[in-house]
Amino acid sequence: MRKQERYDRIISWFRENRPMAETELHYDNPFQLLVAVMLSAQCTDKRVNMVTPALFADFPTPEALASSSPEVVFEYIKSVSYPNSKARHLVGMARMLLDNFGGQVPDTLEDLTRLPGVGRKTANVIQSVIFNKAAMAVDTHVFRVSHRLGLVSDKCTTPLSVEKELTAHIAPEDIPIAHHWLILHGRYICQARNPQCDKCGLRPMCKSYIRKYKMCQKENGSGQ
Q1: Whole-angstrom Cα distance, residue 93 to residue 195?
Q2: Which of 10, 79, 106, 202 suits 96 as a labelling partner, its CA being 20 to 30 A distant?
C-alpha cells in the first residue's frame, strides 16, 4: 500500500467511525485550556481534571494567577507530575500574558512558546483546539500510533519529524481533529503495553499488525 493511500484510508476510517473527537481536558476558555495542557505534561488528563476545578475557581483569570506565587499554586497541583516546576511556570506564564499579550492567549507558535513552560507540543494543542489551526501536537500516543499504523517511517525518531510527516500528508482542514483521533486511539485501543488489536478497525491498514500477522504465518508454516 502506498503511503498516501494508507493515509487516505485511515483518515476515512476515522472520519466514518469517530466523527466526534476532542480533548478530554476540561476547560471553559483559552486561558483555562492553556493551564490544563501545561499541567498535562507527563500526567494523565484524568488527574489534571481532578485538580483544575479548585485551581480555576480561585484563579479564574491571568490576573488572579499572576498575583499569586508558585508556593501557593503548588498546593493546588501537588498531585500532578513535577508540581514545583509547573507551579513556577504557571505563575510566570500568567504574568507574561499580562505583560506582553494584554492578558490574552496568543495564537502563534512563536508567541506561545515564549511563555514559560510552553513548548512546541503545548503550543500546537492551543493552536489546534482554540484557533483551529493546522497544528499537529505530537505526544507519546501520537508518536506511537503513527509509527504502528505506518503513517511515518522508522526514520522519524523525534516528535518534530513525526509532526512534519503527518502535516505533509494530512489535509490542513483535517489536522485539528486528526490530532485527537490519534491520541484517543492510542489511549484506548493502540495502547503501549497491551494494544487491543482484536478491537481495532484499522487492522487491515495497520503496518505493525500486518507485519506481525505475516510473521506468524511464516512461523506456523515453517513449523509444519
Answers
A1: 37
A2: 79
How crowded is the C-beta side of 62, counted as CA atoms within 13 Å? 22
Contacts of 13 (CB under 8 A, 6+ apart): 201, 202, 205
CA distance 141 to 191: 8
C-alpha cell at 1: 500500500
Q: Choose the catalytic residue: 86, 99, 121, 174.
A: 121
CA geometry: angle 24, 25, 27, nearest 5 deg: 130
pTM of the model: 0.90
Taking every pair of Cα atoms in the chain, the longest distance, rounded to a whole number of angstroms, is 73
139 is catalytic: yes
Q: Verify whether residue 3 is a known catalytic residue.
A: no
Task: Catalytic residue, from 45, 58, 139, 154: name it.
Answer: 139
Question: How confident is the prediction along the chain (224 residues), in pLDDT tens digits per residue?
Answer: 788 999 999 999 999 999 999 999 999 999 999 999 999 999 999 999 999 999 999 999 999 999 999 999 999 999 999 999 999 999 999 999 999 999 999 999 999 999 999 999 999 999 999 999 999 999 999 999 999 999 999 999 999 999 999 999 999 999 999 999 999 999 999 999 999 999 999 999 999 998 876 666 666 665 44
